[in-house]
Amino acid sequence: MSKITVIGAGSVGSTIAYTLSHEEIASEIVLIDINKEKVLGEVMDIEQGTCFRDPISIIAGEYEDAKDSDIVIITSGMARKPGQTRIELTQTNVDILKQITPEIVKYAPKALYIIVSNPVDILTYVFTKISGLPENQIIGSGTILDTARLKCGLSEHFKIAQKNIHAYVFGEHGDTSFVPWSGAYISGVSVDEYYKLMKSKGRDDIEELDKPAMEEYVRKSGGKVIANKGATFYAVSAAVCNLCGTLLASSDSIKTVSSMMHGEYGIEDVCLSTLTIVGPNGVQGKVPMRMNKKEIEKLQASANALKAVIAEIEL
User: Fold this and answer.
1) I want to staple 257 with a disulfide (CB 3.0 to 4.6 A). Which of 29, 142, 243, 267 is the partner?
2) Residue of 280, 286, 232, 241 whose CA lies nearest to 259
3) Tens digit of pLDDT for each residue in 200-213?
4) What 3-state class would DSSP assign to 144?
5) Phi, psi of 268 (to 5 degrees)
6) Which of 123, 156, 165 has its CA nearest to residue 142?
């Protein structure tokens, strides 16, 4: 069993710690936050619900308590407010990350780091530049949540289990994200072919997919949840905990996480999400999915949008 440290006891960090406490992933969980009373309360609440599982250690800790962590999850930062874009958060959360990074890296230099704070692609880039750690140890949560939202939407549309859907969201975790429909399949059949197949079988309850509307649903889901309930934390926590399981598994998996680009699709020196091989040794490379010219241009446009923001911030 492993040791996982979560930095930030806000809605996302606390929900990640809670979710991990009921998974057979970690035997030790350390929750760290600048608000000492809040983190003590969160840990007490989480710990008192663990009598229904095998014993697990959960503590409200300091940075030194992260020593020997297998994974460190960074969720610290200001939350996005209703109507606010992720990019508007940038400089504030960059400054917070710059304070945290040397403190945590000092005690957990060998851990795999998952950056969750928004804007996640910018912060993953900043952490990569200032941490001094090898790039393979640094993973941004990227579009794993967007991809989960896409699968949820496609599942409802086609009335098929999410596990049968293989479709992804690429680019920024934000407004310039997109779906490369060239690689969207339902168990080996493209989404267009699947619709035709269902119609040929008399399935009048399934309509033709409006792809722009589906992408809009994915992009606007976070903002809609925030407008309705003030924050998003359940789905992102499930996505991050699933990623933790992947990083602690015996073999690699492929996820749409954010990591540094080195010429793939003509993109360099920026972090964004494409199909990435991750596992117990962190990032192990990228899978060059076939995309048409327009899709590659969308990915490059997403990269350029992120680079424009990076150019304006103080690293």
Assistant:
1) 142
2) 286
3) 999 989 999 999 99
4) helix
5) -135, 155
6) 123
Cα distance between residue 96 and residue 76, in whole Å: 7
Percent of the chain with pLDDT over 90: 88
Contact 155, 161 (CB under 8 A): yes
Contact status, residue 15 vs residue 231, Cβ threshold 8 Å:
no
Catalytic site residue from 22, 166, 173, 262: 173
Greatest alpha-carbon span in the chain? 62
Give the helix/strand (H/E) hosting 260: strand 253-262
Give the Cα separation of 66 and 59 in Å (integer).
10
Report how far residue 92's alpha carbon sits from residue 210's, in angstroms, rounded to the nearest whole number: 37
Torsion angle, CA of 190/236/25/128, rounded to 10 degrees?
Answer: 90
pLDDT in tens, 106-137: 999 999 999 999 999 999 999 999 999 999 99
C-alpha to C-alpha distance for 191 and 83, rounded to whole angstroms: 33
Torsion sign across C-alpha atoms 277, 217, 157, 303 = negative
Per the CB < 8 A criterion, the answer to whether 199 and 192 are in contact is no
| H-type alpha helices, 108-203 | 120-130, 144-158, 191-200
> Is 173 considered catalytic here?
yes
Check if the beta carbon of residue 275 is closer than 8 Å to that of residue 264: no
pLDDT of res. 127: 98
End-to-end CA distance of the chain: 36
Burial degree of 206 (CB within 10 A; 0-12, 13-18, 19+)? middle
* Bridge partners for 262 per DSSP: 268
Q: Give the predicted TM-score (pTM) of the model.
A: 0.95
Q: What is the pLDDT of residue 269?
A: 97
The pLDDT value given to residue 87? 65
Q: Is the dihedral of CA 15, 284, 105, 263 positive or negative?
A: negative
CB 299 within 8 A of CB 171: yes
